[in-house]
Design brief:
By secondary structure, this protein is of the alpha+beta class. The protein is built from ten helices and nine strands. It has a five-stranded antiparallel beta sheet, sandwiched between helices. The chain has a two-stranded antiparallel sheet with strand order 1-2. The protein has a two-stranded antiparallel ribbon with strand order 5-6. The chain is globular.
């Protein structure tokens, strides 16, 4: 928000002395007119003396300085400072204005970890391989057992190739080892595109159960991992719907927080991160949360 300064101009008025009338018999002392006025009245020169100024120069206008802007947009340095030794890929997209608000290494490649479950969910719902409630549970609890079963039944890496082509995901590739679905490769830009597809193009029969799962993300995943780092912990009471990812160590420690933030799912927020193996999950989780906090000024 910006406030305009105001300018105040000050004018000065020079007034002449006023003669005081003397009432007969009164003892009021007679007022003495200034020499210049007395001379003018008598016609006699007042003699040498200081001349009255021709005009009075007003003080310079007082200008109030503009206040600094509130909640300035974060710089890349602000965002990366929260996780100084991590590799980050960041996208913030405003669906209302159709504008990308933040883009930091959005095409850098990362191991997807559990983010590939978004593709598994879309494929299973479209093919009928799983019920909506099963998909919702897989998303909310990040259930690896359900994901592994559906991955195998849907052709493994082939489903990644199918959906990458359909959604035009430029850098999403199936894993080299077809049995390791978490090793699917992706980017922040591609993950943001998956959310845009889900909200604007997916049929309601697929969209609704996935969104229910995203909104119901449990504090801990099915493996016991604390999965409210990043968007949930940073957003507080602001509405959110998220899919998180974590893995280690091939060769880095991955922690990803992605999803929808704000009323009517206005913002798509994606933060992918690789941390050195020496940085524990607890520390890395706090750092990812701080990265999201640094991005919050972008969200009105």
């Amino acid at each position: 928000m910006k406030a305009g300064g105001s300018v105040v101009l000050v004018g000065l008025l020079a007034g002449a002395a006023v003669a005081i009338a003397v009432v007969p018999g009164a003892t009021v002392p007679r007022a003495v007119a200034p020499p210049a006025e007395a001379a003018a009245a008598s016609g006699v020169s007042a003699g040498p003396g200081p001349a009255a100024p021709a005009s009075v120069v007003p003080d310079p206008p007082a200008v109030s300085p503009a206040p600094p802007p509130e909640d300035p947009a974060p710089s890349a340095a602000d965002v990366t400072a929260a996780a100084p030794d991590a590799k980050l890929g960041v996208v913030v997209y405003d669906r209302e204005s159709a504008k990308t608000l933040a883009d930091h290494r959005s095409t850098a490649k990362f191991t997807s970890a559990s983010l590939v479950k978004l593709l598994i969910a879309l494929d299973a719902l479209e093919s009928g391989a799983a019920s909506p409630s099963t998909v919702e549970r897989m998303i909310a609890r990040s259930d690896d057992e359900i994901a592994s079963r559906l991955w195998s039944e849907s052709g493994g890496g082939a489903l990644v190739t199918r959906w990458a082509k359909r959604m035009q995901l430029a850098d999403t590739r199936p894993p080299e080892d077809p049995g390791r679905w978490g090793d699917t490769t992706t980017t922040a830009a591609d993950v943001a595109r998956i959310y845009r597809y889900l909200l604007s193009r997916a049929p309601d029969a697929s969209r609704a159960p996935i969104l229910r799962g995203l909104r119901a993300t449990t504090p801990h995943g099915s493996d016991g991992f604390a999965q409210h780092f990043g968007i949930p912990d940073a957003a507080g009471t602001t509405p959110w719907a998220v899919k998180q990812g974590w893995a280690c160590c091939r060769p880095k420690r991955q922690l990803h927080t992605t999803g929808l933030v704000g009323e009517n799912d206005r913002y798509i927020v994606v933060v992918l991160s690789d941390h050195p193996e020496s940085v524990g999950y607890a520390t890395a989780s706090k750092r990812v949360t701080e990265v999201v906090r640094a991005l919050l000024p972008l969200l009105e």
